């Protein structure tokens, strides 16, 4: 379940703790406060348990990029969150050198756009929004 910052169930403290844990790996230059003030920033929950956070931001090239971070051992839940968020977009990019993130993105339907630049792309194709089977 995706919970945005306007929800009374949004847990900014949990998001901040996880952000600080992964801060060096998160490629977002403007910091936590700017990130959480975006309408496209969500906490991810499954079964009432905090999984992590997922967000979309417009990069300097004007394109929408997907980012996120999750607790360890939450791969399946992270894939579901990516799939759920992708439904709201026609086109998303993601740039990551992290193998776990690449595997998650690939399971959610992203494809390599440029491997050397660690750049993946997700396109809404003919009504088939993701490859993921729940």
Task: Describe this protein's structure.
With 134 residues, the chain is α+β, with helices and mostly antiparallel strands. The chain is 28% helix and 30% strand. It contains four helices and seven strands, in the order βααβββαβαββ. Strands 1-2-3-4 form a four-stranded antiparallel β-sheet, with helices on both faces. A three-stranded antiparallel β-sheet has the order 5-7-6, with helices on one face. Helix 3 (75-86) packs across helix 4 (99-107). The longest helix has 12 residues, at 75-86. The protein is globular, with a radius of gyration of 14 Å. The two termini are 14 Å apart. The model has no long low-confidence stretch (mean pLDDT 89).
Q: Helices and strands in order, then pairings?
A:
Layout: E1 2-4, H1 12-22, H2 31-36, E2 41-46, E3 49-58, E4 64-70, H3 75-86, E5 91-95, H4 99-107, E6 111-114, E7 119-123
Antiparallel strand pairs: 1-2, 2-3, 3-4, 5-7, 6-7
In short:
With 134 residues, the chain is α+β, with helices and mostly antiparallel strands. Helices cover 28% and strands 30% of the residues. It is built from 4 helices and 7 strands.
């Amino acid at each position: 379940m995706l919970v945005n910052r306007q929800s009374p169930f949004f847990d900014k403290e949990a998001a901040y703790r996880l952000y600080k844990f992964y801060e060096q790996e998160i490629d977002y230059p403007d910091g936590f406060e700017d990130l959480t003030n975006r309408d496209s920033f969500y906490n991810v929950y499954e079964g009432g348990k905090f999984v992590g956070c997922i967000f979309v931001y417009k990069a300097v090239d004007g394109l929408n990029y997907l980012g996120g971070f999750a607790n360890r051992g939450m791969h399946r839940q992270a894939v579901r969150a990516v799939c759920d968020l992708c439904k709201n977009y026609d086109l998303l990019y993601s740039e990551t050198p992290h193998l776990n993130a690449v595997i998650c993105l690939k399971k959610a339907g992203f494809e390599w756009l440029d491997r050397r630049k660690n750049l993946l792309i997700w396109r809404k194709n003919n009504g088939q929004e993701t490859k993921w089977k729940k």
